[in-house]
C-alpha cells in the first residue's frame, strides 16, 4: 500500500477517534449534568428567579439558595428550600449536590444515620466525575457521619482517601482529624488494612501507644518518621505528637503541691501528701531525676490568683491540687489558668473547664460505672439497686443507671437504704415477696386449709448493684438470704470494704463481688510495703488516699500524653487511669470477692 494512502488512513482514524471521544464526553456530560453555579444574588433573588423559571432551570437556583442558607447557618430555611426540590427529576450532578447538602443538614441536626442514608443515593457512583471541590465536600461529610456513628476506622479511611483532593489549611485540618480518629482506636484495631497511606497512620498510632515513658515514645516516633519519610504525617507530624515531643524535651522540674494543712480536710490532705512524697522518694531511689516539690498550704492562701502569682515566681510548671471542692469549682469556671493544674477533686458542674485544668479524685461514680461495665461483661442484663439514702447515694445510683442503660441493661427497681429496721421490707419490695405472700393467703382462703408453700421471689433479676458501708453490707447479705434472694449475685463498690483483714467481719458478706483499688488488693507492691512501714494506717481504707497521692505523682508528667493519645492507659495504684474528654481522670478497678471471710482477687472477667 502506498505510503501516502497509509498516512491518509492514519489521519482519518485519528479524526474518527477524536470525534468518538468528543461524542462520549458530550454524552457523559449530558447525562451527568452540571453543578449549580456560584450565585451572585441573595436567597430571595434566587428563589424569585426560580419561581419565574421553567423546572429544569428552577432546580439549580433553589439548590443554590438552599446552599446559601446553609452557609449562613440558617439550617431550617435551607432544609425548607431543599424540600421543594424533586431529587428524582434531577440529573446525577445535581442529585449528588442535593444529597450532600441534605447530609450536611442532617449532621447539623445530629442525625448522622440520616446523613449516611442521603449519601447512599445511587448518583454517588458518579461522584468521581465531578470537580475535586465537590468530591471533597461530599466525602468530608461522609467521614463526619461515619465518625458520629462510631465507625472510626471507616471514617479514617474516608479522610485518607480525601487527602490528595485538599490543599492548604484544609489539608492540615484533615490530617489532624485522621490522627484524632486513629489514635482513639484500641491497639487491637490498629492492624494493616492494605492501603499504604492508612497503614502508615495506623502504624504511627500503634507506635505512639506501645511505647512506655515519654522518652521512649519520643524515640519511637522518630524511628517511625525515619521509616516512613514520604508519608503525609512524617512531613507534617500531628500537633498532638509535636506537643508530646516538646514535653519530653522540656522535662518537668518544679511542681507545687497545694493542699490544706488545717481544717476538716487536713487528715485527707496528709495522706495524699505522704503518698505523693513516698512515690517521689521511690523514684529517687530508682535513680530517676524526679521534679522538685514545693509545698503550699491552701488553707492559708488569700486567693487562687495570689497563689498562681507566687507559684509562677517560684518557677512552678505544674500544680497538684487544690483538694477543696469549692476551689476546684472556681478554677473550672475560668477561661484559662496561668499554670497547668491537676486538681485533686472534681468540680460541682460537668461544664468543660479551661484547657489547663485536669481533675482527679476517688469518685464513687467511677466505681458505679465499673459495676455496670463488669456486670455486663459477665453476661448479666437485669438489675435492681440498693444505695444509701441521701445525696451521695443519689449520685452513685444516677451514675450506675446512666452507664448501665447506655450499654442496654435494664434497671428494674431501686431502694434507698436508711434505717436498718426498714431493710427487710425494702428487700422484700424489691423482689415482690409481699405479692407472693398475698397470693398464698388468697389460695389458703379459697381452699379453707393451710397451704405449705414458701413465698417466692421474682425471677427476672440477674444481680443487685450495691453501694453500702461495711456495717450496712453485713446486714444486707443475710437479709437477702432471709428474703429468699440469697442466690442473687451482688456487685458492689469498694465502700463495703474497710481494708482490714478480718475474717469474722466478712463472713456475712460471702459471695459479694466488689471493685477495689490495686493498693488494697496487691499488698506485695514495693511502694505499699514502704508506706505501711511508716504509716500503718495506710493498710486500711485510708490507704486509698495514699494510693491517690502516689498516682498524682505518676500522672504529673503524663497529662499531655493522656490528652494527646486518648486511648492511653496508666496502670496506677487506684486503678487503670485514663482521661475523658472533660479532662477528668477516670479509673477502671480490679475485682475481688468475699469467700469464707477472705478477700479473693478475681480475674478480669468471670466468663
Summarize the structure.
The chain is α/β, with parallel strands linked by helices and 607 residues long.
Q: What portion of residues belong to β-strands? A: 5-15%
Shape descriptor reads: globular
CATH architecture of the largest domain: 3-Layer(aba) Sandwich
Largest β sheet strand count, sense and barrel closure: 7 strands, mixed
CATH superfamily caption of the largest domain: Response regulator
| Cα end-to-end separation | 85 Å
Q: Please, what is the average pLDDT?
A: 85
Q: How many structurally independent domains?
A: 4
Question: Could you describe the 3D structure shown?
Answer:
- By secondary structure, this protein is of the alpha/beta class.
- It has four domains: 1-30; 33-150, Serine Threonine Protein Phosphatase 5, Tetratricopeptide repeat; 252-358 and 522-579, Response regulator (Rossmann fold, 3-Layer(aba) Sandwich); 364-516 and 589-601, 3-Layer(aba) Sandwich (Rossmann fold).
- Strand 11 (570-571) and strand 12 form a beta hairpin.
- The model is unreliable at 1-28 and 434-457 (pLDDT under 50).
Structural key phrases:
single chain; 607 residues; alpha/beta; Serine Threonine Protein Phosphatase 5, Tetratricopeptide repeat; Rossmann fold; seven-stranded mixed beta sheet; five-stranded parallel beta sheet; 26 helices; 15 strands
Amino acid at each position: 500500500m502506498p505510503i501516502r494512502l497509509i498516512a491518509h488512513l492514519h489521519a482519518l482514524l485519528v479524526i474518527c477517534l477524536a470525534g468518538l471521544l468528543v461524542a462520549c464526553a458530550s454524552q457523559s456530560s449530558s447525562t451527568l449534568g452540571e453543578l449549580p453555579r456560584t450565585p451572585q444574588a441573595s436567597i430571595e433573588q434566587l428563589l424569585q428567579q426560580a419561581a419565574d423559571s421553567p423546572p429544569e432551570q428552577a432546580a439549580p437556583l433553589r439548590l443554590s439558595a438552599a446552599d446559601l442558607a446553609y452557609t449562613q447557618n440558617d439550617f431550617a430555611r435551607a432544609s425548607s428550600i431543599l424540600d421543594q426540590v424533586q431529587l428524582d427529576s434531577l440529573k446525577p450532578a445535581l442529585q449528588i449536590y442535593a444529597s450532600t447538602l441534605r447530609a450536611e443538614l442532617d449532621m447539623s441536626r445530629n442525625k448522622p444515620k440520616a446523613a449516611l442514608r442521603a449519601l447512599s443515593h445511587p448518583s454517588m457512583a458518579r461522584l468521581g466525575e465531578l470537580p475535586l471541590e465537590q468530591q471533597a465536600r461530599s466525602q468530608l461529610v461522609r467521614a463526619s457521619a461515619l465518625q458520629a456513628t462510631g465507625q472510626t476506622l471507616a471514617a479514617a479511611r474516608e479522610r485518607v482517601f480525601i487527602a490528595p483532593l485538599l490543599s492548604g489549611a484544609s489539608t492540615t485540618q484533615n490530617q489532624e482529624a485522621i490522627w484524632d480518629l486513629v489514635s482513639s482506636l484500641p491497639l487491637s484495631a490498629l492492624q494493616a488494612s492494605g492501603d499504604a497511606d492508612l497503614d502508615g497512620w495506623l502504624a504511627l498510632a500503634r507506635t505512639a501507644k506501645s511505647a512506655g515513658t515519654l522518652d521512649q515514645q519520643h524515640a519511637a516516633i522518630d524511628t517511625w518518621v525515619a521509616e516512613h519519610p514520604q508519608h503525609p504525617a512524617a512531613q507534617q507530624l500531628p500537633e498532638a505528637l509535636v506537643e508530646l515531643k516538646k514535653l519530653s524535651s522540656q522535662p518537668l522540674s518544679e511542681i507545687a503541691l497545694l493542699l490544706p494543712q488545717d481544717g476538716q480536710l487536713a487528715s485527707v490532705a496528709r495522706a495524699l501528701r505522704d503518698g505523693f512524697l513516698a512515690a517521689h522518694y521511690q523514684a529517687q531511689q530508682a535513680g530517676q531525676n524526679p521534679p522538685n516539690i514545693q509545698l503550699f498550704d491552701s488553707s492559708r492562701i488569700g486567693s487562687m490568683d495570689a497563689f498562681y502569682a507566687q507559684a509562677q515566681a517560684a518557677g512552678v510548671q505544674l500544680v497538684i491540687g487544690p483538694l477543696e471542692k469549692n476551689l476546684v469549682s472556681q478554677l473550672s469556671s475560668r477561661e484559662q489558668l496561668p499554670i497547668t493544674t491537676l486538681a485533686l477533686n472534681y468540680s460541682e458542674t460537668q461544664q468543660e473547664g479551661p484547657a489547663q485544668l485536669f481533675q482527679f479524685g476517688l469518685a464513687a461514680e467511677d466505681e458505679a460505672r465499673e459495676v455496670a461495665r463488669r456486670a455486663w461483661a459477665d453476661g448479666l442484663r437485669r438489675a435492681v439497686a440498693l444505695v444509701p439514702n441521701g445525696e451521695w447515694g443519689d449520685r452513685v445510683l444516677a451514675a450506675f443507671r446512666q452507664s448501665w442503660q447506655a450499654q442496654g441493661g435494664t434497671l428494674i427497681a431501686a431502694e434507698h437504704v436508711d434505717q436498718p429496721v426498714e431493710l427487710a421490707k425494702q428487700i422484700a419490695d424489691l423482689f415482690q415477696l409481699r405479692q407472693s405472700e398475698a397470693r398464698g393467703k388468697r389460695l389458703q382462703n379459697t381452699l379453707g386449709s393451710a397451704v405449705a408453700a414458701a413465698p417466692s421471689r421474682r425471677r427476672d433479676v440477674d444481680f443487685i448493684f450495691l453501694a453500702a458501708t461495711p456495717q450496712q453490707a453485713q446486714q444486707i447479705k443475710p437479709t437477702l438470704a432471709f428474703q429468699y434472694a440469697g442466690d442473687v449475685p451482688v456487685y458492689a463498690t469498694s465502700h463495703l470494704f474497710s481494708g482490714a483483714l478480718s475474717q469474722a467481719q466478712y463472713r456475712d458478706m460471702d459471695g459479694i463481688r466488689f471493685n477495689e483499688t490495686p493498693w488494697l488488693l496487691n499488698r506485695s507492691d514495693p511502694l505499699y510495703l514502704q508506706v505501711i512501714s511508716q504509716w500503718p494506717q495506710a493498710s486500711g481504707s485510708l490507704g486509698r488516699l495514699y494510693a491517690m497521692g502516689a498516682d498524682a505523682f505518676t500522672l504529673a508528667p503524663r497529662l499531655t500524653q493522656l490528652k494527646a493519645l486518648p486511648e492511653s492507659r496508666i496502670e496506677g495504684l487506684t486503678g487503670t487511669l485514663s482521661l475523658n474528654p472533660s479532662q477528668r481522670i477516670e479509673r477502671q478497678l480490679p475485682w475481688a470477692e468475699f469467700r469464707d471471710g477472705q478477700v479473693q482477687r478475681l480475674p478480669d472477667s468471670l466468663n
